Amino acid sequence: MSIQKPQAPWLDMGTAPKDGRLVRLLVRFDENAIDDGEEPFATIGQNNRENDGVDRWQFVGWCWTHDEFTDGQGTPLGWLPMLDEVKTFAARDVLAERQRQISVEGYNSQHDDHHTLGEMALAAALYAIPKDASDAGPLIADDEIIALDLALQLSCGWRLKPEPDPRNRLIKAGALILAEIERLDRLQSGSPEGQNLPQEADQ
Length: 203
Fold this sequence. Notes:
Layout: E1 23-31, E2 41-47, H1 49-52, E3 57-63, E4 68-71, E5 73-81, H2 83-103, H3 109-112, H4 119-128, H5 133-136, H6 142-156, H7 166-189
Antiparallel strand pairs: 1-2, 1-5, 2-3, 3-4
Helix pairs in contact: 2-7, 4-6, 4-7
């Protein structure tokens, strides 16, 4: 049996959930190691403290005598969410940013329906471009990025807020794409919401 250790930025155990949720764990085993060779090893486990009051990590190990899975013994060093939960995190964060744009910035459907020239899609594209031009390589030059940014400013007065974190930039891009899809859906369905309002420029 051989389990490769994933090359991942393991999260600090102090941030690990203790509500019975199944997570991935990086463990230094004392007994019933999940693999042989150099430790630590990746496995899965949970801590149910929030439900039963017992702060104890239970995780999967391997019984080498009977060749079967068993309870592992050792010290968890890091954790990661399960892969399907990682996808959920990404979608959740995009939806949360979309809600923030509506509730905090006031960019609701009535506002969005003013922008019929693809401004939201262009803003999303600008957020999605790597901030460091070296990351983009030859795919897009600095002067092209400047031209796109200028086009956005001229069309609706938008100037994108600085966002150095690449993941946050993509979250903002995803929320703007979602807003543009919703606008097109309203337009296609014939929804009157915001369709007859005059154009306005954002501050």
